[in-house]
Input
Amino acid sequence: MKNCFAENVFLLWVTAIAFSPLACGDGCSKEQTRALLEIRNSANGLAFAGWDGRDCCEAEDIECGGTNGGVSEIILDGFGMAPSSSTWYPNVTLFTLFDELEVLYLVNMQIGGGLQPFCQLKHLVVLDLGYNRLEGIIPSCLGMIENIEEIHISNNRLHGNLPPSIFSKQSKITDFDVANNQLEGVLSSSTFDNASSLESLDLSDNLFHGNLPQSIFSQESKIMYLYAFSNQLEGVLSFSIFANASRLMHLDLSSNKDLEIETESPSWVPTFQLSYLNLANCSLNKKNGHVFPSFISTQFLLDYLDLSHNLIDGSVPWELLLLNTSIQVLSLRSNQIDGSLSFGCFAQTSSLKAFDISENNVTGSLPENIGHLLPHLFYVDMSSNALEGIIPSSFGNLSFEILDLSNNKLSELGKERKKWMKSKRVSYGVNDIADMCRWGELDRDLLTLIFLRVPEYDISRVRLVCKSWLAVMEDPFFKIMIVMDIVEKIRGEYEDM
Ligand SMILES: *[C@@H]1O[C@H](CO)[C@@H](O)[C@H](O)[C@H]1NC(C)=O
Ligand SMILES: *[C@@H]1O[C@H](CO)[C@@H](O)[C@H](O)[C@H]1NC(C)=O
Ligand SMILES: *[C@@H]1O[C@H](CO)[C@@H](O)[C@H](O)[C@H]1NC(C)=O
Ligand SMILES: *[C@@H]1O[C@H](CO)[C@@H](O)[C@H](O)[C@H]1NC(C)=O
Ligand SMILES: *[C@@H]1O[C@H](CO)[C@@H](O)[C@H](O)[C@H]1NC(C)=O
Ligand SMILES: *[C@@H]1O[C@H](CO)[C@@H](O)[C@H](O)[C@H]1NC(C)=O
Ligand SMILES: *[C@@H]1O[C@H](CO)[C@@H](O)[C@H](O)[C@H]1NC(C)=O
Output
């Protein structure tokens, strides 16, 4: 009798554990489990597909790290899923049932509708809704979520202005990414008055016009990454406005309609060390004789520089550029650079890997020591210049993957031609690389490789690893890095043979 009672108590206890909503580490209440099931059912097979509907903390896309063991992160992306033509209209109210939810990541999920409902999620720190089909305007209430630090809403169909009060007085927003939408209007200076926590701002691929507000770059500014390419910014921008933004590392202002950038006046002293600078198509130094920007040789961390499609005239301080920076990728394509490529005979070697000086007016012969001074070169486009003479033997010390010397006045291939002509793509134009970069032609292994090699910051910024490869390939910022990775992979295969 006594034993029997004990057994029943034990059974009851076991039953209680199995069915109590918070037992056994399940951080979800019944309501929450029901909400997740409802989300799963509405999502066209894109959400929680592998979840058995039991312990929600066991679901692959959920992190239970809240103070009470509740759901703190929901991370969903359409990576690897067959693209669906049907749009998902999630019932955002269901997510409000998770009162410890800090990270909501719904990327490439074919989400339609507007952003307004997401303002209900009062505990969010990170919101990433990139690569969806969201429409309408950006509601200012998003910026008023008390602890919000990251808002990523790039690659949607949003329109309208940046709300003037998106950065409220106590704004903690560090990352704000609205790239590739149809946003428009003048960027007003007061919008950024309170954006004092901002570290990364991506406005690229929109229809913004007017000037770039100086308030983003004040002395107290924490800005490190600024992308504003492919907009309609206009007017004359003096580079001196960046002088006091001491943490600035990446800057891309390329391809803006009617934007003119002056780097030489008024005089200024950089407090920053850039690693990435893209001023392609920026009417550089139109009022200062189209000179090569002099501050660049002070940028010793610079590894990527694109000044293509300007009218840069005259000569380039090659020695400073190649030695006083960490330059790896350099494009000066389509300018009016003349003079010869005289690199002097510096003692060190340069880190330069990819060099494009096509469509200029470079004269004279190639430096005899080029192969020794630039031993890491593997991508070279010098086509459409006025180079003449014999190709130096030190070319034989280089392992080119891409070499284009077409449309010059070179007369002889030189002694070591057998060596350097082994490169697979000798005299192919860069257009072939652009073709290679088209996402359709890349296989999964290659993409894995790319994901593994994307710089660490970019992984944390956009959680690239989870992002669809389609989306990555559309991001112009990664293109040249991707080219380099492809080339390295190809080279690796050669070496394995
Ligand atoms: C969304 O979910 C909430 C909470 O469960 C519910 O009250 C509401 O009716 C739902 N809305 C729609 C449109 O289904
Ligand atoms: C910025 O904060 C100040 C108070 O520090 C406030 O008066 C002002 O309205 C805010 N500006 C914007 C654009 O929100
Ligand atoms: C940068 O700071 C210096 C020193 O405080 C100041 O004189 C200058 O006006 C500032 N420049 C800009 C563009 O804010
Ligand atoms: C330069 O910018 C103009 C205006 O936006 C655009 O039409 C042109 O295609 C751009 N050129 C390049 C090479 O990016
Ligand atoms: C370039 O680097 C050399 C050696 O580090 C240094 O002496 C020189 O001052 C630098 N030049 C400029 C313009 O920064
Ligand atoms: C290239 O440079 C040569 C020699 O300085 C000059 O005669 C010629 O006009 C230049 N060509 C162009 C297209 O600028
Ligand atoms: C360049 O190649 C030649 C011939 O293979 C070799 O003798 C020489 O050591 C190489 N020089 C360098 C700097 O690698």
Remarks:
- The longest helix spans residues 476-496.
- DSSP finds ten helices and 28 strands in the chain.
- Residues 1-25, 425-473, 475-483, 489-497 have pLDDT under 50 and may be disordered.
- Residues 1 and 7 are 10 Å apart (CA to CA).
